[in-house]
Design brief:
The chain is mostly helical. It contains nine helices and no strands.
């Protein structure tokens, strides 16, 4: 199992735990759906299938599949195949896919009823956008950094713990900057510039 897939599994479990904890408090926010849509832009097809099936199994462990679960499983895969259609920045495509995903999910499950009570829809949409942004940018930058560094120095591979964690690639470099300064620079570069 690659480190990227391990990080994806950890993020998926964090999203599931946060979603179930918020549901026990009485706040219904679908963070797992937003996470899986973000994963559509970050992972390969088979890795995405593993994550989607695991997310669907944990969210709905019953043997019957409802329309909501089918959309929950099919939409991230559809977003993966349509990821390069718009030719925009990946983070913009990610946000558009999440908005479309929540519109399709709420439209199919609730019909037009969610238009009469938009608070739940908007809360779910905003929370999904914020959570997906928090996971998308560091993972996207981490992937690009690992690919760039692997092209520049092909002798170092992932099995050599080159990019075991997002900070490890920076902390292992031998530049003049201290480890804390390099990590702060990496975090700053992980977020988009406006």
């Amino acid at each position: 199992m690659t480190f990227k897939l391990s990080a994806g599994l950890a993020i998926l479990f964090i999203a599931l735990a946060l979603q179930f904890w918020l549901a026990s408090v009485g706040i219904s926010i679908d963070l797992t759906f937003a996470t899986l849509i973000s994963f559509a832009f970050l992972f390969d097809f088979w890795e995405l299938i593993i994550l989607v099936l695991l997310g669907v199994f944990i969210v709905n462990w019953q043997p019957t599949a409802s329309l909501e679960i089918l959309i929950f499983a099919i939409f991230p895969v559809a977003a993966h195949f349509s990821s390069g259609v718009l030719h925009w920045q990946p983070w913009i495509e990610n946000l558009i896919a999440i908005m479309l995903g929540f519109l399709v999910l709420y439209g199919a499950v609730a019909g037009t009823a969610f238009l009469y009570h938009p608070q739940a829809f908007l809360t779910d949409l905003v929370a999904g956008l914020i959570f997906s942004t928090l996971i998308f940018f560091p993972m996207y930058r981490w992937e690009k950094y690992c690919i760039l560094n692997e092209r520049q120095n092909p002798t170092r591979r992932l099995l050599n713990f080159h990019c075991a964690t997002p900070g490890a690639a920076i902390l292992r470099s031998r530049r003049c900057l201290s480890a804390t300064a390099r990590f702060c620079i990496w975090v700053r570069r992980s977020w988009p510039s406006y």
